[in-house]
Amino acid sequence: MRAPVPLARYGLVIALAIGGLLLVTLLVRPFIFTFSEARDDTRYPLIATAEADAGPRLLEIVLNEPHGLLGERVRDEAAGLRVVVAPRSAGDGHTVVSAWSPVNDCGVTLAADRLVDCEGTAWTFDGVPLDPTDPPLQRFPATERNGAVVVDFTRPEPSTAP
Asked: What topology is assigned to 44-151 in CATH?
């Protein structure tokens, strides 16, 4: 008959296994961040392209740092921003605009076929004003990468106002 194995031996084996896993984790983790893309406001994954293709969406986002954008709400080190993402009217890609009215200094909401601010001023989903005397909404460069709409919030596109 074999002698029972002491519990201390099992405890030692378990402690060594946990220590080995911890060591592997500490060694591998820095490499993961070394090879991954930076996550900042220049490459902000906003929404899945399939969801954006379904129609205009009003999104509340949190930026990594303030950039002095229209309608930006700064709190501590981060900034909140409301944006509208919509398929371009030309059918190629997506448009991302600030959901803040440069005319009446208030939020913009989605209507059936346009964006409207608190006083009734209106824009297309591309941010173009319906009244040519009004300025356009602040627009951001957007690309598609790995099935997502990726936006650069650090450089708003120049105004195309008349």
From this structure: Rieske Iron-sulfur Protein (2.102.10)
> Which tokens sit at 76?
């501590």
- Look up tokens 């009446």; give the residue: 104
Q: Residue 45: count other Cβ atoms within 10 Å of its Cβ.
A: 14
pLDDT tens digits, 113-154: 999 999 999 999 999 999 999 999 999 999 999 899 999 999
φ and ψ at residue 12, rounded to 5 degrees:
-65, -45
Beta strand pairing status for 108-110 and 115-117? antiparallel
Q: Which helix (H) or strand (E) holds 96?
A: strand 94-98
Task: Spell out the domain ranges in the chain.
Answer: 1-36, 44-151
- First-to-last C-alpha distance (Å) of the chain: 96
The alpha carbon dihedral of 124, 128, 132, 136 has a sign of: positive
Tens digit of each residue's pLDDT (9 = 90 or more) over 88-119: 876 788 999 999 999 999 999 999 899 999 99
